[in-house]
Write the structure tokens for this entry.
Amino acid sequence: MGATWVFAEVTPEGPHPAALELLTKARSIGGDIAAVAFGPGATAAALELGAHGADTVYASDESVFADQPGRAAAHTLHALIGRHAPSLILFAGTYDSRDVAGRLQALTGSTLMANATDVEGPARARTEIFGGTKFVDVDLGGPEPRLVLVRPKSFAAEPTGGTATVVSVDAVVPDSATATVIERHTEAASGPKLEEANVVIAGGRGLGGPEPFAMLDELAAAIGTAAVGASRAAVDAGWVPYSYQVGQTGKTVKPEVYIAAGISGALQHVVGMKGANRIVAINKDADAPILRIADLGVVGDLFQIVPALTEEVRKRANS
Amino acid sequence: MNITVLAKFVPNPTGTPELGPDNLLVRTAGDGALDPGDEYGLELALQLAEASGGEVTVVSMGPDEAIAGVQRALAMGAHKAVLVTDPALRGADALVTARVLAAAIARQPADLVIAGAESTDGYTGTVPVTVAELLDMASVTAARKLEADGDGFRVERQTESGYDVLGMPSPALVTVTAGATEPRYPSLKGIMAAKSKPVERLSAADLGVNDLASTQSVAAVTDAPPKAGGEIVSGDEAVARIADLLAEAKVI
């Protein structure tokens, strides 16, 4: 079997957490492991990528990878594959990595599996369907390398303390026209990041508008280590930015406690939060599907319960 | 500006999905719809075409009943449609799907190709960019805003921390997220007019796509361990119970 590669998204702040999760998984598959890191910060990220299991890091710090997302990375990766013939490449299931994997598939003609939750090797991976109620094991065929997009937080990242050999790579940029980043905007909320918070409080359609999210912000502030998220319905309605979205098309979170307020529990949302240690759901509809997966389901009016809970948390904090 | 919109016919998104003995989704006749995620892109296409005096062509691959989805797109205002329907394409993987769609698009080049960011049933989310690479086109995915800008396009793309603004020349491919715009409802006039709009039906062979072998097959389907039912509370005790749980989890 050829090597297993991990396509590692990097920024000058470091590697994407999903890259470290995928390297940890790659160690259980066996064989040589390499990480591929493109864009500003790639060489610096090799330290952490090596510490999580990469024997080799193919790195390029060129800014074209950040400025022309997807395409340059796919073509450079394709050239590297031609030289080293890996058997399997793991990607995080993010928008950026999906673009690289999707374009790469057109170049290699190899199979591409999306939404994997576990990977046995180049010939088999697992996904979950129907909101995680069924596991589907999929045989992968066709030419190598097989391409697998893995849902973030499918594995816990564990360092080994290893060191990677860094191999410098030149960007391969196709001549034809491409999309170029002109501006970048950050809409990050204050407080802990959604993916890292101990407690996530998420609002859905039941909030009825943007203003009630202030109520969730207050509860988050009272708890202290909490972040506020949202369902796709709330994001699509324009009540909060996309960076709040938890679910299939948004972020995957695994906090100690997840509080779903006014969220019905569509499968698209559930796959992003079902890994939480404890799930609390507040919903006025006793038949809402979210109540079936909640450890504690509260049938009632969130507009009374949430402010009362904020008071109670403050009271306990002061006692 | 001529625009091609990729449209998928999906099982009823509010129904309860089931697997058949072949491990493919059971499709019940009359219980499918145009993917709601495709209507946002179609709406943007109609607006851009109306502003510039161009045509919107819908391209769809699916079973015979996918004609219902195509007809909805035509009723919303698309000018014509191509439906690739072929029993040999049942269970087609992402690469075969991308090759078929790319071949269908290439027969009638457009200034812009629009697709949904991912389908509501399979949510693979890679087929449009594979199509873009096969056709050597620039692309932006996960767009929340799309405007014509000189000879090209200006696109706002959602990112994990906010959004980026990208520029690209024509021809290009864009995938749009829900929320990019509010799709119109087909009018009665639109529904009547749709019946006389041209729909071309093609097979994979018509498009010259002959290698239809799927590179993925289902080895096993197993039930996930069921989750134990939780506690349901209501009324006055609710607030104290949530606070107790937060304390048990040591987060307050």
Summary: The CA atoms of residues 4 and 265 of chain A lie 36 Å apart.
